[in-house]
Recover the amino acids of this structure.
């Protein structure tokens, strides 16, 4: 073992003897433990320190150091001590201890045995692996105590709630200079869950049973109680969940009854918000969430918002029907409306008219059960949307002209060109979504990844008046920075294949503006047809 010069503890007292204590040859935890064990070091700052006390404490210092080294496996240290009184130099007493810890004692044998009903069970036998790591290692009483506590805790986690040590000791043979560990555990019977009582009055017990991972007859595990509490709390229905085990019923496998008490949130939650932005102006939003409706966990949300910029309006209604809540499976029905103004100034014209871009959607989505791939969770969904959208770019361009002039322009450009400028899209849009995510913490993520791929499209063969297909990919990645910081990287990519028509020298994609990847219908088309921007995904109703 390397020798290190160590801490020097010193103090001068004008009303008492001066004492300086020096301890050499030890490091880290061993040194700290030795200093804490040395009375002469602990009392070096005493205000009433006498020469007699210093000599007395110095006399037992060697034994204190030896005892301090034993928990770390050093039983044969070489210690030299020295005590000097330098009154002439004015430095007072100087106590010096030089320590060579020597060779540590090794654990050469671990005798672990179980008796009782669980002694022959394979999962119990596997617990020996937690202590096997100590064999051949330096005897460290701290590691021994930690391993011993973990061993009895793991045994109880296997359902042997009354497991206890019948024997636990460490034997040190100084002649052979080896150590042995002997542990004997009585397992007692393996306990199982008994009857489970759900105390609440808002939901059907059949529905809440879908949240239960605890089942009568399964092995009792305290860790599962904590997980069950989390799952019920994460449902969004309950403000408090308490699980109370009852008295075990005697038997070969004692049954532990459980009472699960749940305090529900209020059924309704209302939220309002107001904001102002340089690009949106003043805005208002309202939300109504019905956390539960009926006894089967159905819930819905209604939201609406308005913004000053382009007189934006949006409204959402979503209704969710859970199927397998533990795995995230559900059906969702949604309705959405959003609309906004578009006038000639928005497309850099000196004069013209205006139109209202209005989009209406009805959506049915099936969220499939979550699957796990390594540490990623995969949430897939399949759905279909019925989309209707209309606007009139012709009015924006020529709305300032009299009707006769407009008719002349229409006759000149043709009916197809006019319908391109004033479309009425009706589309049936099926889609698939695949979301992969992982996080190191459900609340405060310091390392996490989220990947989302969406595939959607419309076809005239399925009842639409347009054909297109689209792929969208978005992601975010979080990495830890320093102790509490985070670095977030986000990306959005998209590809659209749709018919393009040229009118008045501008290309117009035959796709609803709702699905466009550009910042506007006419402006983006006039700038560069097909130039990708951030996906114009629908915003939550209260967050326009």
């Amino acid at each position: 073992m390397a020798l290190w010069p160590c801490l020097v503890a010193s103090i001068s007292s004008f009303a008492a003897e001066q004492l300086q204590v020096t301890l050499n040859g030890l490091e880290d935890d061993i040194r700290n433990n030795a200093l804490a064990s040395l009375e002469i070091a602990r009392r070096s700052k005493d205000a009433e320190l006498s020469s007699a006390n210093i000599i007395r404490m110095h006399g037992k210092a060697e034994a204190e150091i030896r005892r301090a080294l034993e928990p770390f496996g050093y039983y044969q240290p070489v210690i030299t001590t020295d005590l000097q009184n330098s009154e002439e130099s004015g430095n007072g007493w100087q106590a010096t201890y030089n320590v060579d810890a020597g060779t540590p004692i090794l654990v050469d044998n671990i005798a672990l045995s179980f008796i009782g009903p669980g002694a022959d069970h394979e999962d119990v036998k596997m617990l020996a692996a937690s202590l096997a790591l100590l064999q051949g290692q330096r005897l460290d009483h701290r590691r021994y105590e930690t391993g011993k506590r973990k061993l009895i805790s793991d045994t109880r986690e296997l359902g042997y709630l009354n497991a206890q040590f019948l024997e636990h000791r460490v034997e040190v043979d100084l002649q052979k200079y080896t150590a042995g560990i002997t542990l004997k555990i009585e397992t007692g019977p393996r306990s199982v869950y008994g009857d489970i009582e759900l105390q609440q009055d808002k939901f059907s017990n059949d529905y809440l049973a879908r949240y239960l991972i605890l089942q009568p007859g399964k092995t009792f595990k305290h860790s599962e109680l904590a997980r069950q509490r989390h799952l019920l709390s994460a449902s969004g229905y309950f403000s408090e969940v308490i699980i109370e085990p009852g008295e075990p019923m005697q038997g070969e496998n004692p049954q532990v009854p459980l009472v699960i008490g749940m305090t529900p949130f209020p059924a309704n939650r209302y939220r309002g918000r107001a904001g102002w932005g340089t690009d949106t102006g003043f805005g208002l939003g309202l939300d109504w969430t019905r956390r539960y409706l009926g006894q089967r966990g159905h819930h819905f949300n209604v939201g609406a918002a308005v913004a000053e910029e382009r007189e934006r309006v949006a409204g959402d209604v979503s209704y969710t029907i859970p199927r397998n809540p533990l795995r995230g499976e559900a059906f969702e029905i949604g309705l959405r409306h959003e609309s906004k103004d578009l006038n000639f100034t928005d497309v850099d014209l000196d004069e013209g008219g205006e139109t209202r871009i209005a989009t209406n959607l009805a959506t049915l989505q099936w969220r499939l059960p979550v699957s796990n791939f390594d540490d990623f969770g995969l949430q897939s969904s399949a759905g279909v949307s019925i989309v209707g959208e209309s606007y009139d770019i012709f009015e924006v361009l020529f709305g300032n002209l009299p009707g006769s002039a407009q008719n002349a322009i229409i006759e000149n450009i043709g009916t197809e060109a006019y319908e391109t400028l004033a479309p009425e899209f009706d589309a049936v849009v099926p889609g698939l979504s695949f979301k992969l995510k992982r996080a190191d913490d459900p609340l405060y993520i310091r390392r996490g990844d989220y990947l989302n791929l969406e595939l959607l499209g419309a076809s005239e063969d399925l009842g639409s008046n347009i054909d297109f297909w689209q792929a969208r990919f978005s992601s975010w990645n979080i990495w830890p920075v320093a102790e509490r910081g985070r670095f977030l990287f986000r990306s959005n990519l998209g590809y659209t294949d749709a018919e393009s028509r040229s009118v008045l020298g501008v290309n117009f994609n035959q796709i609803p503006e709702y699905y466009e990847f550009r910042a506007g219908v006419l402006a983006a088309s006039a700038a560069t047809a097909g130039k990708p921007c951030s996906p114009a995904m629908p915003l939550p109703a209260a967050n326009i």
User: Anything to note?
Assistant: Residues 141-157 form the longest helix (17 residues). The chain is about 20% helix and 45% strand. The longest strand covers residues 424-439.
